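Notebook B, p. 112. Complex prediction, attempt 2.
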Amino acid sequence: MTTFALRRLGQNRPILLAYGGALALFAVTSAFSPGFASANHIRILLIQASFVALVALGQSFVILGGGIDLSVPWTLNGSAILMTLFADGQNRPLVWVIPLLVALGGLIGLVNGLGITALGVSPIIMTLGMNVILSGGLLVYTNGSPTAAAPAFVETLATGRVGPVPYNTLIWLALASLATVVLTWTAFGRHLYALGTNRMVAQFSGIAVSRVTVVTYVISGMTAAFAGILLTGYVGQAYLGMGDPYLFASVAAVAIGGASILGGSGHYLGTIAGALILTVLAGLLPILNLNTASLQVIYGVVILATVALATLPGRLAVTR
Amino acid sequence: MADLEARAVTKRFGGVLALDGVDFEADAGEVHALIGENGAGKSTFIKILTGAVRPDEGEVVLFGEPLAARSPRDAASHGVAAVFQELSLVPDLTVAENVWFRRERLTPLGTISRRRVRRDTRALFGRLDFPPLDPDIEVRSLSVAERQLVEVAKAVAGDPRVLILDEATSALSPKEVSWLLDLARRLAAGGMIVVYISHRLAEVREVASRITVFRNGHSVGVTEGAAASEDEIVSMMLGRRLERLYPDKEATATEAVALRVRDLRFGHRLRGIDLDLREGEILGVGGLQGQGQLELFLSLFGVLRARGTIELDGRPVKISSPRAALAAGIGLALVPEDRQNQGLLLPKSVRENVTLAVTKRFSRRGLLDLERERALVGDAIRQLSIVLSSPEQPVGSLSGGNQQKVVISKLLLTRAKVLLLYDLTRGVDVGTKGEIFQLMRNLAREGYAILFFSTDLQELIHVADRVAVISDGSVTGLLEGEAITEDRILRASVAGGTAA
């Protein structure tokens, strides 16, 4: 029984580590910047973290299954721009616009998934190609001109709150719970881990490997599209290129959260910690008074170092 | 002093004492066998010799010099080479390139000359009297047996002072085995120390001049190869007498045909296979390696899409994937050839592996009932007496025999009634083998229909009710009862088309 408990803890160690890292980083930053730990600022941090975390939710599923989704930036971007176009600043059309866009995101994922499973295109090529197609398509469609502002309802979703808690955080919490249940307590979750660990074993065990794979990309497309809608509400408008930072950030959040980038191990609970770390980090660097370009460099270096650190225990365990 | 000597070597892994003050001696010029049950400490000892593991106490001395290898590369530079059951070849390189991998002599430009590599390989193959194998084909397209042969060539290519053969014959055909045994003797005669590890006692007694037996991390005895009887050796390994390796054959077969195969064809590997497997029957599949046996099993399990008809319990079924095979009629389930890459998720827990194919059985309204899963796993572990410290243990940390039991329990949970067992006892120790054969007979008695392929003729002879011999993609002999003899099987293997 003790070994059982110990092993359980051992499996979760990377995730605990990631949360520890997030807390430590938060404490350090608060020490440098007095307003950082105020209730108001914590709310802002949570909202900012939710966008990365939502995109990274779908990304977690894809990566757990041994794939990767590089089409998230323009799936997010497309959903943001179409939302402002379709709704044209009005709340009423959102009744059909939001479901439609999430479904479209799912459709993009479906095409990705089918390309990978049925045609045998490698995930990197398939999703990268999809990203390029989407970015080009959007440019043609919008002619590059700016679109209408975000409808008020979407702004409320992204920034409003009940009591002390932002709506945005509640939505995130609900989706995170759902993801956790799916990963931990469903056959689909089991099959997903099996697939990411060893595709052939999964196939020999009678698992519908293609179907599971396709579903992960569908989920990723849906979460990216939904994140695009919320992000537009937060920023106030949609613009070309707004999804670009979310590619690296979503993959980094998954990796910092202790998941193997090759699939098979990790959990969305870890990804959440990863998203928090990235967000606090983005808040810490401006305090150091550097220009944006240098910030980018440091941001990148710090993320790579964190990922390396986060994957270290796993590598040690393997060579032991 | 012996040429290779280990003194009081001790190694702990966590709380487990893998080796407890082991002594070992082998001399140049001899083939020295090292045997013992799984978990006896053989693997750990070999890992110490090859530098993969460092001992906590004790030392190893090679030709008077302490051998403290820090890595397999380091060990290689001291002249220690090993062939393991787990293969280390690069699938995308050719046979020749693999043989000389990281030992290539470079041209003045620092590149590898393919021609020279090829020429060296031909020369080496000639020197070793190597079975016919094209040095230019990619390892990817070789069978497991052929890969094992290439491993041997690769190890010998470096002219080692110590050659360790760890279960190196596990996938080989009888002919290839006798070649390897002969090679081991010749290399030893040339002054090499050959350490030979195998579960196959007949081989061990044939090739080894001395045998060291390990049990529970101790060296429990050394005997002359030919002097000890198989029974005596087994008793030393087990610390008790093994009642019987093979259970009695029983007339458990019924008249009902569980699996009927007609005119099964797959490219040029299967040229119209006909088979009838009855309920309660253990039908052995024999023949030389690579005659289509693997393709037969993979086709029946839906990994390969073969043409022809397959009937389960009298009803034709279409099997387009393993998923379809498990779901079809009374169900077809496979113990695959490659446990590590097809059978088990090595880093995952025993529990997850056992239930991987049957998550539906403990789902309620889409959610997994983990209590029920634990109960299922507990039953499976008890039923097959799987030895482990916890069901949460990674399955990769179990011994080969226990890993194979996990594969079997995974199969049984699917409730498939037709079991396809491909080389079930590969890398499994004697004690567990006996248990597995008994289990097969019990399952047959319960009405399971079992198709059983083995590279070991003795297993076919002693376990199967009937043996179908396959040669060049078709059944060239169907032996039953007293007619199942080594001689008849071998004759049908080379008959090529004439029924025995």
